[in-house]
Amino acid sequence: MRLFRRPPTLSVEQRDALSAVLGPLDRYRGGDHDVLADLTAWLLARPDWSAARGFDLTEDMRFAVAATAAVLGVGIAEDDPFGNVSGIVVHPSTMVDRRPRATPMRGVVTEAPRSMLGHTTAHGPVFVSWQAVERDRHHGRGSVVLHEFAHKLDAATTMMDGTPRLDGVGARPRWVEVCTRVYEQLRAGGPDPVLRRYGATNPTEFFAVATEAFFTRPLDLRHVHPDLFGVFADAFHQDPATVDAGRGLTSRIADDERAAAERAAAARAAAEQGPANDAAEHGDAAHRG
């Protein structure tokens, strides 16, 4: 028994490196910064990391994956929110899935090979593509690590159904009402500027896709789906949109909508001004005649 095992900790250099992976750390104030560091250390200390197909998995790569995953657990009141992770496997690039699976179309199943950037099951390891991890860090509009580890939070309730552990008596009904409404809108095929279409596959994928948006595009998610943002903020006990807004950032979608509205208003004003100018010109011509 390891009753007196010392909890793993990050070195000073590793704590300083968190911002290189996650960006500004002002989302994690007070004790949250320590929780982020502790969860990163716990994940790094796991003995079940492995590299697929002879991939050269470096310490920096492991650190980037662990720090990103730790973001999900900052507000969760559990010592190890990822206790159901049986391993972390990093592939150099894509994986191929040949298993039968459901599609976004009701009742339709496919066995066609599918390239994947990540994968996990309720009790199995987490698989991620390092190529996708690097892409996500540069583009910042999604995260394969957040997506796959979100599945593990979903599975913590004994089944993967798109609902993680929630606090409070009224939290679950509100969660189900809001998530079901947005999920059905996504399934109906309507355009959604912030949630990827893959979220329409099933409630489990919807939760993972929405989790990506909540952490990587919080201002956009709050603008387009304020109720959905609200239940996710309650579930994760984090509010990245408020922190980002305090930093002076704005929703790109809201900015685009505002710019489009201004262009439309300018076009209407020009169209209305045109007939008035024509009438004035005709009146001048008649007077001169």
Query: What is CATH's topology name of the largest domain?
Result: Cyclin A, domain 1
Mean pLDDT over the residues: 90
Class by SSE composition: alpha/beta
- SSE topology string: HHEHEEEEEEEHHHHHHHH
Q: Calculate Rg over CA atoms.
A: 24 Å
**Could you say which overall geometry the principal axes of the C-alpha atoms support?**
globular
Under CATH, the homologous superfamily of the largest domain reads: Glucose-regulated metallo-peptidase M90, N-terminal domain
Low-confidence regions:
none
- Mind telling me which CATH architecture of the largest domain this is? Orthogonal Bundle
Name the beta content range.
5-15%
Number of helices: 11
Biggest sheet overview: 4 strands, mixed
* Count of individual domains: 2
Question: How do the helices and strands line up, and which of them pair or pack?
Answer:
Elements: H1 12-22, H2 31-45, E1 49-51, H3 59-73, E2 88-91, E3 95-97, E4 101-102, E5 109-110, E6 114-116, E7 118-119, E8 126-129, H4 130-139, H5 144-155, H6 171-187, H7 203-216, H8 218-224, H9 226-236, H10 240-246, H11 252-288
Parallel strand pairs: 1-2, 2-8
Antiparallel strand pairs: 3-6, 4-5, 7-8
Structure, briefly:
With 289 residues, the protein is of the alpha/beta class. It contains 11 helices and 8 strands. The strands form 3 sheets. It has a 4-stranded mixed β-sheet with strand order 1-2-8-7.
Description:
The protein is of the alpha/beta class and 289 residues long. The protein folds into two domains: 10-103 and 120-160, Glucose-regulated metallo-peptidase M90, N-terminal domain (Cyclin A, domain 1, Orthogonal Bundle); 164-250, no CATH class. It has eleven helices and eight strands. Strands 1-2-8-7 form a four-stranded mixed β-sheet. The chain has a two-stranded antiparallel sheet with strand order 3-6. The model has no long low-confidence stretch (mean pLDDT 90).
